[in-house]
Amino acid sequence: MKTTRFTGVLLVMALLWAGGYLVADAGVEGKDETTAAVSVSPKTDSTAVLPHKVVAYYFHGNFRCARCRKFEAYTGEAIDSAFGGALKSGLLEWRVVNTDSAQNEHYVEDYQLYTKAVIVTDVHKGKQTRWKNLDRIWMLHGDKPEFVKYIQTEVAAFLDTTQ
Questions:
Q1: How many CB atoms sit inside 10 A of residue 36's CB?
Q2: Which of 58, 118, 119, 142 lies at a 20 to 30 A Cα distance from 107?
Protein backbone atom coordinates (compact mmCIF):
# COMPACT_ATOMS: atom_id res chain seq x y z
CA MET A 1 0.00 0.00 0.00
CA LYS A 2 2.76 2.45 0.95
CA THR A 3 4.61 1.70 -2.31
CA THR A 4 1.45 2.23 -4.37
CA ARG A 5 0.73 5.61 -2.78
CA PHE A 6 4.36 6.68 -3.19
CA THR A 7 4.39 5.53 -6.82
CA GLY A 8 1.19 7.47 -7.47
CA VAL A 9 2.70 10.62 -6.02
CA LEU A 10 5.80 10.15 -8.16
CA LEU A 11 3.65 9.68 -11.26
CA VAL A 12 1.69 12.88 -10.57
CA MET A 13 4.92 14.80 -9.91
CA ALA A 14 6.44 13.47 -13.17
CA LEU A 15 3.38 14.55 -15.13
CA LEU A 16 3.38 18.00 -13.56
CA TRP A 17 7.10 18.39 -14.15
CA ALA A 18 6.76 17.31 -17.77
CA GLY A 19 4.01 19.89 -18.21
CA GLY A 20 6.23 22.63 -16.81
CA TYR A 21 4.31 23.07 -13.57
CA LEU A 22 7.18 21.95 -11.34
CA VAL A 23 10.76 23.12 -11.40
CA ALA A 24 13.88 21.74 -9.81
CA ASP A 25 14.96 23.71 -6.76
CA ALA A 26 18.65 23.76 -7.66
CA GLY A 27 20.04 25.65 -10.59
CA VAL A 28 16.86 27.39 -11.70
CA GLU A 29 17.29 30.93 -12.93
CA GLY A 30 15.22 33.40 -10.99
CA LYS A 31 15.04 31.18 -7.94
CA ASP A 32 13.56 33.03 -4.98
CA GLU A 33 16.53 33.51 -2.67
CA THR A 34 14.29 34.58 0.23
CA THR A 35 12.82 31.08 0.30
CA ALA A 36 16.28 29.52 0.27
CA ALA A 37 17.33 31.67 3.23
CA VAL A 38 14.34 30.50 5.27
CA SER A 39 15.20 26.88 4.49
CA VAL A 40 18.23 26.96 6.75
CA SER A 41 16.43 28.39 9.76
CA PRO A 42 16.22 25.53 12.26
CA LYS A 43 17.47 26.70 15.63
CA THR A 44 19.45 24.05 17.37
CA ASP A 45 21.14 24.59 20.70
CA SER A 46 22.10 21.20 22.08
CA THR A 47 23.32 22.74 25.33
CA ALA A 48 19.88 24.03 26.40
CA VAL A 49 17.02 21.55 26.12
CA LEU A 50 13.72 23.12 27.06
CA PRO A 51 11.32 20.86 28.93
CA HIS A 52 8.68 21.66 26.32
CA LYS A 53 8.79 23.26 22.90
CA VAL A 54 6.81 23.35 19.68
CA VAL A 55 8.30 22.63 16.27
CA ALA A 56 6.57 23.75 13.07
CA TYR A 57 7.75 22.09 9.86
CA TYR A 58 7.17 22.72 6.19
CA PHE A 59 7.97 19.58 4.18
CA HIS A 60 8.75 19.72 0.46
CA GLY A 61 10.63 17.74 -2.17
CA ASN A 62 13.24 18.62 -4.79
CA PHE A 63 10.64 19.74 -7.30
CA ARG A 64 8.57 22.71 -6.19
CA CYS A 65 5.69 24.50 -7.85
CA ALA A 66 4.55 28.07 -7.20
CA ARG A 67 1.90 26.84 -4.74
CA CYS A 68 4.49 24.89 -2.75
CA ARG A 69 6.69 27.96 -2.49
CA LYS A 70 3.64 29.96 -1.40
CA PHE A 71 2.96 27.43 1.40
CA GLU A 72 6.48 27.94 2.72
CA ALA A 73 6.43 31.73 2.39
CA TYR A 74 2.98 32.19 3.96
CA THR A 75 3.74 29.79 6.81
CA GLY A 76 7.09 31.46 7.54
CA GLU A 77 5.46 34.87 7.50
CA ALA A 78 2.63 33.70 9.80
CA ILE A 79 5.10 32.29 12.31
CA ASP A 80 7.61 35.14 12.17
CA SER A 81 4.98 37.86 12.51
CA ALA A 82 3.08 36.34 15.43
CA PHE A 83 5.67 34.36 17.37
CA GLY A 84 8.95 36.27 17.23
CA GLY A 85 9.47 36.02 20.99
CA ALA A 86 8.79 32.28 21.05
CA LEU A 87 11.19 31.77 18.12
CA LYS A 88 13.92 33.81 19.81
CA SER A 89 13.55 31.97 23.12
CA GLY A 90 13.58 28.54 21.47
CA LEU A 91 10.06 27.74 22.67
CA LEU A 92 9.09 27.54 18.98
CA GLU A 93 11.22 26.28 16.11
CA TRP A 94 10.43 26.78 12.41
CA ARG A 95 12.03 24.24 10.11
CA VAL A 96 11.86 23.82 6.36
CA VAL A 97 12.74 20.25 5.37
CA ASN A 98 13.37 18.65 1.98
CA THR A 99 12.09 15.09 2.31
CA ASP A 100 13.93 14.05 -0.85
CA SER A 101 17.26 14.40 1.00
CA ALA A 102 18.43 11.03 2.28
CA GLN A 103 18.77 12.20 5.89
CA ASN A 104 15.15 13.45 5.88
CA GLU A 105 13.38 10.51 4.24
CA HIS A 106 12.21 9.22 7.63
CA TYR A 107 9.80 12.16 7.93
CA VAL A 108 7.65 10.67 5.16
CA GLU A 109 6.94 7.65 7.35
CA ASP A 110 6.98 9.57 10.67
CA TYR A 111 4.21 11.96 9.57
CA GLN A 112 2.54 9.81 6.90
CA LEU A 113 3.41 12.38 4.23
CA TYR A 114 2.27 11.93 0.65
CA THR A 115 2.68 15.54 -0.52
CA LYS A 116 3.84 18.94 0.74
CA ALA A 117 2.74 19.60 4.30
CA VAL A 118 2.86 21.87 7.31
CA ILE A 119 3.18 19.83 10.52
CA VAL A 120 3.14 21.20 14.07
CA THR A 121 4.56 19.07 16.88
CA ASP A 122 4.78 19.09 20.68
CA VAL A 123 8.15 18.06 22.09
CA HIS A 124 8.43 17.26 25.82
CA LYS A 125 11.87 16.59 27.28
CA GLY A 126 13.26 15.87 23.83
CA LYS A 127 10.49 13.46 22.79
CA GLN A 128 7.64 14.24 20.47
CA THR A 129 4.29 13.69 22.20
CA ARG A 130 1.82 14.74 19.51
CA TRP A 131 1.63 16.24 16.05
CA LYS A 132 -0.91 17.66 13.65
CA ASN A 133 -0.93 17.96 9.87
CA LEU A 134 -2.30 21.40 8.96
CA ASP A 135 -3.93 20.09 5.81
CA ARG A 136 -6.29 23.05 5.34
CA ILE A 137 -3.35 24.85 3.66
CA TRP A 138 -4.51 23.22 0.42
CA MET A 139 -7.91 24.91 0.67
CA LEU A 140 -6.62 28.28 1.90
CA HIS A 141 -3.62 28.90 -0.37
CA GLY A 142 -5.64 31.39 -2.44
CA ASP A 143 -6.60 33.49 0.60
CA LYS A 144 -3.43 34.71 2.28
CA PRO A 145 -5.11 36.38 5.32
CA GLU A 146 -7.09 33.20 6.10
CA PHE A 147 -4.03 31.01 5.49
CA VAL A 148 -1.93 33.10 7.90
CA LYS A 149 -4.74 33.16 10.48
CA TYR A 150 -5.10 29.35 10.25
CA ILE A 151 -1.36 28.76 10.78
CA GLN A 152 -1.22 31.22 13.68
CA THR A 153 -4.28 29.72 15.37
CA GLU A 154 -2.93 26.17 15.15
CA VAL A 155 0.58 27.08 16.30
CA ALA A 156 -0.86 29.16 19.16
CA ALA A 157 -2.93 26.17 20.30
CA PHE A 158 0.24 24.08 20.53
CA LEU A 159 2.12 26.88 22.29
CA ASP A 160 -0.71 27.27 24.82
CA THR A 161 0.06 23.78 26.11
CA THR A 162 3.62 24.88 26.92
CA GLN A 163 2.49 27.44 29.52
A1: 12
A2: 142
Rg of the chain over Cα atoms, rounded to whole angstroms, equals 16
Query: Among candidates 68, 72, 70, which has minimal Cα distance to 56?
Result: 72
The angle at the Cα of 26, spanning 20 to 27, to the nearest 5 degrees, equals 85
C-alpha span between 160 and 146 (Å, rounded): 21
Write the CB contacts of 62 (distance below 8 Å, at least 6 apart in sequence).
24, 25, 26, 98, 100
Tell me, what DSSP letter sits at residue 103? G
* CB neighbourhood size of 75 (10 A): 25
Query: Which of the two residues, 108 and 38, has the higher pLDDT score?
Result: 108
Give 52-69 pLDDT, tens digit per residue: 899 999 999 999 999 999
**Among the listed residues 125, 142, 124, 130, the one whose alpha carbon sits nearest the alpha carbon of residue 71:** 142
In order of 6, 32, 76, 100, 130, the CA distances from 121 in angstroms are 24, 27, 16, 21, 6
Structurally, how many domains does the chain consist of? 1
* Residue 51 belongs to domain spanning: 2-160
